C-alpha cells in the first residue's frame, strides 16, 4: 500500500540541472504589495511561500535563489504585512506572503491582511502552487491549519515544506513527519508529497528547485 504524503525524492540529474539553471537566473525584488490594486501584472507563472513567523521563509527563498539578502526577515515577527514579489528570470514570480501568527500586529492590521490574502489566493490565475512552510522543530500548528483551510477554499494546490530539519534528530523528524501527514490528510488541496529542507545545509534545495521547474512546464 502506497504511503500517503511520502517525502519527495531527490530529482534525477536532468531535473536537478534544469532546476539549477532556472535559479541561476537573476533574482530581483519587484515590490511589496499592501492592496490588490498594487499587484504586478499577472503575466507570468507565480509560486508563493507561506508560513508562520520565524519559520525560515526568507532563508529558504535566499537559498533557492542563491542570493543572500534577497528576501529579508522582519526583526519583529508578525510586523511585515506586505506580499513581496521577486522575479526569477523573465517568466517566474516568487511571492513571499507575510509570516502569520500576528503576535505583534494590531487587530485591524490582521483583518486587512487576511482580506488581502483571501483576495490574492482566490483571484490570481497565474498562481501555480503555494508552498506552506512548517518548522520541523514544532510540527504543524493550528495557525498552519488555518492557512491550509484557506488554500482549500481558494482551490489552490499547496505543498508542505519542512524547514530547519538540521536542527533536530532523525527520530524526532520522523515523528514530526507523521504528525504533519495526519494534518494534511484533512486538506483536499494538499499536494501528496512533503519536501524536507535545511536552508543552512542546503538539504532539499535541489528537490524544491526541480519541483518548481516542473510546475513551469505544465
From TrEMBL:
Keywords: Cell cycle, Cell division, GTP-binding, Magnesium, Metal-binding, Nucleotide-binding, Septation. One of its GO terms (cellular component) is cytosol. CDD domains: YihA_EngB. Residues 43-218 form the EngB-type G domain. InterPro entries: G_ENGB_dom, GTP-bd, GTP-bd_ribosome_bio_YsxC, P-loop_NTPase. Pfam families: MMR_HSR1. Coiled coil: none annotated. The keyword Protein transport does not apply. Its cofactor is Mg(2+). GO terms for molecular function: GTP binding; metal ion binding. GO terms for biological process: division septum assembly. NCBIfam families: GTPase_YsxC. HAMAP family: GTPase_EngB (MF_00321). Necessary for normal cell division and for the maintenance of normal septation. Belongs to the TRAFAC class TrmE-Era-EngA-EngB-Septin-like GTPase superfamily. EngB GTPase family. This is Probable GTP-binding protein EngB. It comes from Antarcticimicrobium sediminis.
Amino acid at each position: 500500500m502506497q504511503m500517503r504524503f511520502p517525502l519527495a525524492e531527490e530529482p534525477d540529474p536532468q531535473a536537478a540541472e534544469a532546476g539549477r539553471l532556472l535559479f541561476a537566473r537573476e533574482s530581483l525584488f519587484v515590490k511589496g504589495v499592501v492592496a490588490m490594486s498594487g499587484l504586478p501584472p499577472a503575466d507570468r507563472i507565480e509560486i508563493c511561500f507561506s508560513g508562520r513567523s520565524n519559520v525560515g521563509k526568507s532563508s529558504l527563498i535566499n537559498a533557492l535563489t542563491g542570493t543572500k539578502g534577497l528576501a529579508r526577515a522582519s526583526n519583529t515577527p508578525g510586523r511585515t504585512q506586505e506580499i513581496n514579489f521577486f522575479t526569477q528570470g523573465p517568466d517566474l514570480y516568487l511571492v513571499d506572503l507575510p509570516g502569520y501568527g500576528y503576535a505583534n500586529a494590531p487587530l485591524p492590521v490582521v483583518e486587512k491582511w487576511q482580506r488581502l490574502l483571501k483576495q490574492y489566493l482566490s483571484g490570481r490565475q497565474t498562481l501555480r502552487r503555494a508552498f506552506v512552510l512548517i518548522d520541523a522543530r514544532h510540527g504543524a500548528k493550528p495557525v498552519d491549519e488555518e492557512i491550509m483551510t484557506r488554500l482549500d477554499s481558494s482551490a489552490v494546490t499547496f505543498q508542505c515544506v519542512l524547514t530547519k530539519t538540521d536542527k533536530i534528530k532523525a527520530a524526532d523528524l520522523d515523528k514530526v513527519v507523521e504528525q504533519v501527514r495526519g494534518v494534511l490528510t484533512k486538506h483536499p488541496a494538499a499536494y501528496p508529497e512533503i519536501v524536507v529542507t535545511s536552508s543552512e545545509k542546503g538539504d532539499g534545495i535541489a528537490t524544491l528547485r526541480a519541483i518548481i521547474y516542473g510546475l513551469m512546464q505544465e
